[in-house]
Design brief:
Blueprint (H helix, E strand, L loop, with lengths): L4 H24 L1 H7 L3 H19 L4 H31 L9 H16 L6
Helix pairs in contact: 1-2, 1-3, 3-4, 4-5
């Protein structure tokens, strides 16, 4: 049963639509992008909040379990963002081959970071 992928698919679709919307607004209306540009990436963060809420409903968690799950998710998200920001800062100072500069090396680092965090799945 791969029903758990439904929520992940929703989040990925929403994140993709937000990114395309951001690019379109930046190109078509620079003044609107200047006003709303900072808020568009926050919509992607709202997808994570939606995902946590949907998982709580799907798993029939109690209020306390949902509260703990929400705080744990927020703490985990914060930890990943801090680690990823530190890695991106270090990569900005590193000599990365031209083919990997920018987004490609960021995806490689994100993949390695996700593999490292997959080790925690066995602890539950």
């Amino acid at each position: 049963d791969i029903g758990f992928l439904r929520i992940l698919t929703f989040i990925l679709v929403i994140a993709a639509v937000v990114q395309f919307t951001e690019m379109a607004v930046r190109k078509l209306s620079p003044s609107l992008y200047q006003v709303l540009g900072i808020f568009l990436p926050l919509i992607t963060t709202n997808c994570a909040v939606l995902g946590v809420a949907l998982l709580n409903v799907q798993q029939h968690n109690s209020f306390f379990e949902s509260l703990v799950y929400g705080f744990g998710s927020a703490l985990g998200f914060t930890l990943v963002m801090v680690i990823f920001a530190g890695l991106r800062e270090r990569l900005a100072l590193a000599q990365v081959p031209a083919a990997f500069a920018g987004a490609p090396i960021a995806f490689v680092v994100a993949g390695l970071l996700s593999m490292a965090f997959m080790g925690f799945a066995g602890l539950a």
